[in-house]
Amino acid sequence: MDKNQLAADFKRRVRDNSRTRWIRFGIVSLIFFLWVAWLGNWWVALAWILLFDIYITGYIPFTWWKKSKSAAVRSVMSWVDAIVYALILVYFVFTFIGQNYQIPSSSLEKSLLVGDYLWVNKMAYGPRVPNTPVHFPLVQNTFPIINTKSYLDSPQWKYHRLKGLGNVKRGDIVVFNFPAGDTVALKVQNPDYYTLCKMYGKDNVHANPQTFGEIIYRPVDRRENYVKRAVGLPGERIKIVDGVIYINGKAIAQPDNVQFNYYYQLKPGATPAEIWEDLGISADDRHEVPVTPEDTEALASLGFMVNPDGSVPAVYVSPLTPAMVKSLEENPLTAKVMKVPANHGEVLYPSGVADSWTRADYGELWIPAKGTALRLTPEAWDRYARVIRDYEGNHDATMRDGKVYIGGEPVDYYTFKMDYYFMMGDNRDNSLDSRYWGFVPEDHIVGRPEKVLISFDKDRSLFNGGIRWDRILRDANPDKVKY
What we know:
Layout lengths: L2 H13 L3 H21 L8 H10 L13 H26 L1 E5 L13 E6 L51 E5 L5 E3 L7 H8 L1 H6 L1 H4 L2 E3 L7 E8 L4 E5 L2 E4 L2 E2 L8 E7 L5 H8 L7 E2 L7 H6 L13 E6 L1 H9 L3 E6 L22 E5 L6 E3 L2 H14 L6 E3 L2 E4 L2 E3 L1 E3 L4 E5 L9 H4 L2 E2 L3 E11 L6 H5 L7 E2 L8
Antiparallel strand pairs: 1-2, 2-22, 3-6, 3-22, 4-5, 6-20, 7-8, 7-14, 8-9, 10-12, 10-13, 11-12, 15-19, 16-17, 17-18, 20-21, 22-23
Helix pairs in contact: 2-3
C-alpha cells in the first residue's frame, strides 16, 4: 500500500466514526491529558496515540472477536473484554483515587474496630506513582491459594508522589506500608524479620528455611498495609512519660478512645461475661491472668481479694478506655481495678538506645525531616542508621572507628531526603507501632481513611449483630478533633 492509499485509508477510518464516538473520544482525551498534567510526565502523553487508534482509526484489531463466526468465541471474548476493562479501571482508581482496606487488628480500638472496611483516600496526601507498576490490582503482594507473587519485580520506578489535598497532620489516622516489611521470612511474618533476627540471630534465621521460610525482599508499595495514628511529625521531638505523649516538651491531649491494659477483679457472684458485654470488650480481649500461690502476698498488698484459704479469685486483664475504667470502678460488682505497669526488656526502637525505655516511658527521640542536616556522631548513628542506610538508599553506609562512611567516603553530616513520621495505635499496650520498629518514611504513606464502608463483628453471627449497622458510612477518625 503506497502513501496515497495509506492516506486515503486513514481519512476513511476517521470519517466513518459517528458523532457520538467522537464525543466519547473527546471526553476520554480530556480526562487523559488532565491525568498526564497531574503526573507531570509529558512523555506519557504519547499513549494518546493508542487511545486515538482504539476509538477512531482501529488499526490494532482489539475487537476482532466481534466479527467471529463462532458464537462461543464472541460470548467468551465479550466477558474477557469486560473483565479487562474493569481491571484497568480498578487499577487506576485504586492507584490514584482511593481503595478499600480491612482493619485486621485491634491497635486502633475503639476508634476503628476489627472487621471495619474502610475507604482510604489516596488523594489526601497525593497518590504515589507505583514503584511496581505491573501488579494485579486486587491483592497486595500474594495471590491467595496459589501463594505466588502478584507483581513483577521489574520495571521498578523511583518514588514520586503527585500533588494532593494536604499533608499528614497530627492526629490523622494513616494507612502506610509496613517499613520493617522490606525483608520477610515467609513462614513467620509475625514478629517481623528484624525482630526474628534479634531473637534468634540473623544467621540462624537464614539457615533454617524449614522453620522460617524463604527470605524475600518486597518493594515499598508491595509491603503489608498498616493503619496507625500520626502522633509525631517531621522535625519534632517525641517523648512518652507514663503513657502521655510529649511533643517538643509539651504534652498533647489523649484521644477519648485511647486504651491501656488494666487488671480487674470482680466480687463473688459477679459474672464476667455480663461485665464484658456491658463494657463492649471483644472476645479477643477477655483474658484471665494465671495466678500462682507465690503471687498471693503481692496481690493482697495491691488490694486484690484473697480467699481465707489463700486462693485468689479470678483476676482479668483487658484494654480499657478512660470511660470504661470509670464504668468498671463505679460498678458495685467490681472489687479492684489497676493499670498494668509496662515491662522492661521489650525490644524497642532504636535497638540498643532504647534498652532502658518502656512502651509507657519512651524517648526522647528526634523525628527526621527532609532537608535537615544531622551531625553523624556514634550516638546519632545508633539512632538513625536504619533510616540513612535502608530508607534513604545508602546501602553501603557503615560506621568504622567512630566515623560514618557513605559511598566509601567519610562524612560528618547527613541531610535527609525525606520526611518521617512517628505512628502509634490508640490501643497503646497492644499496638506494634513506631515504638517497636521506628519511623514511617514519606514514601511509605498510602492515604487517609475517610469512611467506614461496612463493619463485621467476628464474635457474632451474621444475623445476630454480625453487621455493625451503626458504623456504616461513619467517620473513620472520630477522635481527630482531640489533637
